[in-house]
Design a protein that fits this description.
Largest sheet: 5 strands, mixed
Radius of gyration: 17 Å
Helix content: 10-25%
Shape: globular
């Protein structure tokens, strides 16, 4: 399973540089509404809203969900009280994403267990938690 934990902050009038200065954390992705970027297919994409994201990911696939949540805590524990009052934020949440492509064709479930510390960390952020789970079934050979 590939696991990532992302803090997402969005708003039409969001100033990503201001969020970075307040949180004292560098974002993985940031942009203002109206910013133009070029897609991989060379098309111009205009941002419809401001966005600031931080992400814990592990392409080596060795970290557990609790490890990722501990990264979130060690990066943002100092800022939990700031989250409700960030300027021009319309939405802020934590996304826990799990991609599982290792299961057998007949297995359609994905399960994970959060320890008590991880549950407390997520609660202490004061933010909504979104679970995004992608399941790709292996074809029988």
């Amino acid at each position: 399973m590939l696991i990532s934990v992302t803090l997402r902050i969005a708003g039409d009038l969001l100033d990503p540089e201001e969020i970075t200065a307040i949180l004292n954390v560098a974002p993985r992705v940031s942009r203002r509404k109206g910013d133009v970027r070029i897609s991989s297919s060379k098309r111009e994409i205009v941002s419809k809203f401001g966005l600031w994201t931080w992400k814990s990911e592990d392409l080596s696939n060795t970290l557990t969900i609790d490890d990722h949540i501990n990264r979130l805590k060690s990066t943002f524990q100092h800022a939990y009280a700031l989250f409700p009052n960030l300027p021009n934020v319309e939405n802020a949440w934590v996304d826990i994403c799990i991609v599982d492509s290792e299961g057998e064709g007949g297995d359609s479930s994905v399960s994970f267990l959060l320890d008590k510390k991880s549950t407390a960390t997520l609660s202490n952020t004061g933010l909504p938690i979104e679970f995004t789970i992608y399941r790709s079934l292996q074809e029988d050979e």
